[in-house]
């Protein structure tokens, strides 16, 4: 099964950033990502993502970016 998840920063504060994540079908969810310890919190589940597959991939991609020292305005997970 292929995945394409578009991840876009919608807000940023000193300690965290908020992102929307969007599937190839256009469904969206929202998460908060902490800058200090790379912890994520699901704020709004993506409709149709009952197994949270898109959410998990969005968090994994953000953690990978975070390890390089940045949180991008936009990125994607594609597999």
Q: If you had to describe this structure to a student in words, what would you say it looks like?
A:
This protein has one domain. It is built from 1 helix and 5 strands. Strand 1 and strand 2 form a beta hairpin. The longest helix is centred in the last third of the chain and has 15 residues. The protein is globular and about 35 Å long.
Low-confidence stretches: none
Structural class by helix and strand composition: alpha+beta
The rounded Rg comes to: 11 Å
Instruction: Name the average pLDDT.
Output: 95
N-to-C CA distance: 8 Å
Order of helices and strands: EEEEHE
Number of domains: 1
Main sheet record: 5 strands, antiparallel
Number of DSSP helical runs = 1
Number of strands: 5
Proportion of helical residues: 10-25%
- Percentage of β-strand residues: 35-45%
Entry summary:
With 79 residues, this protein is α+β, with helices and mostly antiparallel strands. Helix content is 19%, strand content 43%.
Features:
five-stranded antiparallel sheet, 5 strands, 79 residues, globular
How is the topology of this model organized?
Blueprint: E1 4-12, E2 16-23, E3 28-34, E4 40-44, H1 53-67, E5 74-78
Antiparallel strand pairs: 1-2, 1-5, 2-3, 3-4
């Amino acid at each position: 099964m292929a995945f394409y998840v578009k991840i876009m920063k919608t807000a940023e504060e000193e300690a965290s950033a908020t992102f929307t994540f969007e599937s190839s079908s256009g469904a969206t969810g929202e998460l908060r990502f902490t800058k200090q310890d790379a912890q994520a919190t699901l704020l709004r589940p993506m409709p149709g993502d009952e197994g949270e597959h898109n959410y998990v991939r969005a968090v994994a991609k953000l953690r990978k970016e975070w390890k390089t020292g940045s949180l991008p305005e936009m990125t994607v997970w594609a597999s």
